[in-house]
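ok so i was messing around last nite and threw this chain in just to see what happens. nothing serious, just curious
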Amino acid sequence: MFNYIQKNLFYIKQETIKLVGSTYTFYGFIFFLQPAENILPPELSVLHRIGLGVLYLLITIIVSFAIKVISLYRSNCYLYLKIKDTHYIYVHYGDVFDANIIKNSITKNSDAENGRNIIIPTNCCFDTKVDDVQIAKGSLQGIAINKMIAHGISETEISQRIKQNLISQKIDYKTLDKKQKPKGNLNRYPVGTIATINGFDNIRFMFLALVKFDKDLHSIRPSPGNFHLALGRMIKNMSRNSEQYPIILPIIGSGLSNSRLSEQNLLEYILKLLKLHQNEFNCDIHVVIYKDKKKDISITSAI
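result:
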């Protein structure tokens, strides 16, 4: 808990100051209705009254601080930014596939049952074989594909839907040979390309091309320039193709792409990028950090 408080201290202090201010406004209203002489014993000296005032202030600060710590820790959600008067950017601790991410939002501005978009980082060839070689079972892409398969969408059908979407976008690609990539799809698309397909339960998956493979099928970490380019293209695609359904966005760059930035820095970078492009969005955006990272990553650090 101490580490959690330390990482969110700036936000907690700000909120504590607001609560203390509101509390003292209430105190002032009470003393307006009832003069201090009617509340405090008249025999108290000035020093005793000052002492009581300081004590009340300390108690108010401590209680307000505790309330804000508990409130933030239990909510798992932070409203980062209001955009266009009708939509919001949130930061959550949770699971990107959990519909409750949207249902439990502070403003309850949208409903996951009507539809949602989930962004899934993938390699630039858009492979779909979950074999712990091309795609790891524990990766977001592996989990997403296995969930679709469990809902009756075959791996072949998933691959076909991705290919059809890419063809419809008329994006140039490079065709590799088997020496360059021994397994999987051989058409390599530019970093930042997004293939959007329908999944299950009104989920649309937006597969984001982020890394390339070498000849041994090891992922090649993108350069800082390519990483920034990928996020820029992702944001443009989010603004054009969300269909006004909320977008679930994991911390891009923390897994598959093996970014040089820490997850905390990645979160702050992504939030600032979203803020910069806020006028382009017509939907809610939910940035999600895995729930087990609560002790390590502050969701309020980018305020």
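not much to say yet. The chain has nine helices and ten strands.
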